Amino acid sequence: MTAERQIRRAAHAFPPRWRQHSGDELVATALASLAPDVRRAPRRLLVDIVLAGWRERLRDRPPFYRWVPYLMGVPIHPKWQVWARDDIGGALYPQRVALRVTCVVAPPYVVVALALGAHWVWLFPLMQLVGWMLTAPLYAKQTRTRAYRRNGISFPGQDPPWPPVPTFEPHPPLDRGR
Amino acid sequence: MAPASYWILCALAEGEAHGYVIAQRIRGLADGEVGVGTGTLYAAIERLRADGLIELAAETRVEGRIRRSYRLTGSGKDVVVTETERRAAAVSRARRQLGLAT
Question: pTM (2 decimals)?
Answer without folding.
Answer: 0.75
